[in-house]
Amino acid sequence: MSDKSVLLAFNNVSKRFDSSDILVDFNLDIYDGEFFTILGPSGCGKTTVLRLIAGFERTNDGVITIDGKAVNDIPAEQRPVNTVFQSYALFPHMNVEQNIAFGLKMTGVPKAEIQQRVTEALELVKLSGFEKRSPSQLSGGQKQRVAIARAVVMRPRLLLLDESLSALDHKLRQQMQMELKQMQRRLGITFVYVTHDQEEALSMSDRILVMNNGQAQQIGTPREIYEQPSNLFIARFIGEINVFDGTVIEKVNEFSYLVDIGGVSKKVRCDQRLQENDPVHVMVRPEDLRIEYLEDKPQGRSGFMGIVVERSYTGQTLDSLIDLGEGRMIQSSEFFNEDDPDFDYSIRQKVWVDWVEGWEHVIKKSAI
Amino acid sequence: MKAFRIIFISLILVFLYAPIAVLVGNSFNSSKYGQKWGGFTLKWYEKLLENDSLMTAFGHSLLVAVLAATTAVVVGTLMTLAIYRYRFPLKKTTSSALFILMMSPDIVLAITFLVLFMALGVSLGFWTLLLAHTTFCLPFVVITVYAQLKGFNPYLFEAAKDLCASEWQIFTRIVLPLLLPAIAASWLLSFTLSLDDVIISSFVTGPEYEVLPIRVFSMVKVGVSPEVNVLATLLLVVSTISIAIFVLLTKNKQLNKSN
Predict the structure, then answer these.
(1) Contact call for residues A198 and A238 (beta carbons, < 8 A)
(2) Where, by residue number, does the polypeptide cross the bilayer (chain B) (predicted)?
(3) Which of A243, B36, B43, B88 is most buried by a 10 A CB count?
(4) Structural domain span for residue A327
(5) Which of residues A210, A236, A262 is at a domain's end?
């Protein structure tokens, strides 16, 4: 992001359906030109946020501004916002060209310009030559592209995408993710993308908002969200993570503490200020764990002995489920190194589990 | 087993269509009373055309059927859209009232109309007939159009709105073209329903505005004349064609599937 001017803002917005609160005092800033993703499980209110931006729903309280102007009373058809619907919602009685031209026709753009802009939009989504096809003759991926072209051709300030790739198969989805990201860079339009797929969110976004139960949990870059989740929900929602419960023994220096995890003392980093005896969650991603084949506890190192209970080979990594005793199960994920003779642990094998100091992420237990 | 199946199906077909076959056959039968085949003739068809009172009644029937079907389709389509898209008080009552109307026996409807017109002091004739026919066609229109509307992607309307279309533009450019098959189908259905209604018509029209089914009914009381056979055959052809078109139009669900 070159400039950080706020394009869209939610100020203390509340939304109720019948008697249930979907959003309460919700605040959000989206910057001009960024690829912003709203991520959360189904029913968390993310689609409601999108529909409020589009103007399909009205707020019960609070103000939504676009470019600094309140848009609460501006109907959907007059907002500089266009939507790519999850179900595409292409007009079945119009061909591709007519679908894309529809919005321009409604706004009274001259014919010659419509023609030119439709052609450009089709080029952008790589569907030149499909002008006369009817939507029923298109594949899911092609319908998706038409839906994007139909919205982009309007040159909106904000393009809203509602779980737009979820109906596509894995490979096509990855390809579309790349294309969407490139398209967004090229057009300079602000994209607001709603998804429940964390991988999708991480790979495309400039910033991510994680939502749960109608509340913003954390806003940050993909890296911040993944590496420094602000609570357990986010940590668990964004990929796999191992959580060790521990208690602070003492402060080592400004950002380091000695923590007792089930009888093992580990030195950990934490940006939060912790007190002695504070209960904490020490979180380590499966790929950050170091697994060694050792029969016994090595001297002078702090870590955990465990037994491999389950293993699965995914092609890129070897994933193991390791029992640390006392009901504690952890997951590890190691990159495959064919030359390493020690790599292949069999089930029931004893292993030594450890991680590089500083790769963990620690939060206070009350911060759930 | 296979023979049994063929016999069984043949029996059903005979049971269903034998009366119709006899009627159609008799319309070409030169023997007046139809007990036996007297040779092929078209003279009853000519006689029908010369029968002024029957032709007048036929004209009345066509006029009422066309007007009733058209009115029912216009009102019914708008009603369906209101029920589908908007929230308003008594919405549930409105849609269930339509079902009650459809499920009521004709004789009950007939008496209700009669009592109403009497209470209002309206003289029976063309207008009362048209009003009654429009009313009993209405639920069939709503059901046909609603079925099609429910098949659409519900986000089509929002998509149109999102692309800057006004309510009127959404109606003329999205809703109407998409509903056209259902609208045409329900028009044909209403037309047929109106054309062959006897019970309600006989209650709500006066002697100076006779419609075809009533005229036929009174003719049959003094014995089935061959002209009635001819007329029935012609009506049969018209009904079959409209029902065939209705089926074709509602069967074509390709529009709904594409999304």
Answers:
(1) yes
(2) 7-28, 62-84, 96-120, 126-149, 170-189, 228-249
(3) A243
(4) 240-367
(5) A236
Residue A1 counted as domain residue: no
Does A223 lie in the same domain as A109?
Answer: yes
Q: What is the CATH number of the domain that holds A203?
A: 3.40.50.300
Say how far apart CA A204 and CA A202 lie, in whole Å.
6
Residue from B155, B158, B161, B163 to probe the interface with A (highest A Cβ count within 10 Å): B163
pLDDT digits (tens, 9 = 90+) for A106-145: 999 999 999 999 999 999 999 999 999 999 999 988 999 9
For A56, name the nearest residue in chain B, comparing CA atoms only: B158
Partner-chain residue, chosen from B155, B156, B169, that has the shortest CB–CB distance to A106: B169
Statement to judge: residues A172 and A267 lie in one domain: no
Which residues, including other chains, have CB under 8 Å from residue B9's CB and lie 6 or more apart? none
ipTM over 0.90: no
Secondary structure string (H, E, C) spanning chain B: CHHHHHHHHHHHHHHHHHHHHHHHHHHCECCCCCCCCCCECCHHHHHHHHCHHHHHHHHHHHHHHHHHHHHHHHHHHHHHHHHHHCCCCCHHHHHHHHHHHHHCCHHHHHHHHHHHHHHHCCCCCHHHHHHHHHHHHHHHHHHHHHHHHHHCCCHHHHHHHHCCCCHHHHHHHHHHHHHHHHHHHHHHHHHHHHHCCCHHHHHHCCCCCCCHHHHHHHHHCCCCCHHHHHHHHHHHHHHHHHHHHHHHHHHCCHHHHCC
Contact B163 A135 (CB under 8 A): no
For residue A273, tell me if it sits in a domain: yes
φ, ψ of residue A83 in degrees (nearest 5): -120, 140
Same domain, A281 and A168: no
Confidence category of residue A345, pLDDT binned at 50, 70, 90 = low
Question: What would the pLDDT profile of A169-206 be if each residue is shown by its tens digit?
Answer: 888 888 889 999 999 999 999 999 999 988 889 999 99
Domain boundary at A212, A236, A260, which?
A236
- My answer on whether A73 and A140 are in the same domain is yes
Beta bridge partners of A243: A283
Q: Which of A189-203, B26-40, B226-240 has the highest mean pLDDT?
A: A189-203
| Sole residue written with tokens 């870059």 | A221
Beta carbons of B120 and A44 less than 8 angstroms apart: no
* C-alpha of B56 from chain center: 20
Q: Is A62 in the same domain as A154?
A: yes
Residue A246 resides in a domain: yes
CATH 3.10.120.10 correct for B48-254: no
8 A C-beta contact, residue A257 and residue A250: yes
The token duo for B1 is: 């087993």
CA-CA distance, B68 to A115, in Å (whole number)? Answer: 44
Q: Is A343 helix (H, G, I), strand (E, B) or coil?
A: coil
Find the chain A residues whose C-beta atoms sit closer than 8 A to any C-beta of B. 54, 56, 75-78, 81-83, 85-93, 102-103, 106-107, 134-136, 150-151, 154
Residues β-bridged to residue A289:
A355
Q: Domain spans of chain B?
A: 48-254
The percent of residues above 70 in pLDDT, for chain A, comes to: 96
Q: What is the largest CA-CA distance in chain B?
A: 71
Residue A201 located in a structural domain: yes
What's the total number of domains in chain A?
Answer: 2
Please give the residue of chain A at the shortest CA–CA distance from B170. A106
Distance from CA of A91 to the nearest CA of B (A): 7
Q: Are residues A219 and A269 in the same domain?
A: no
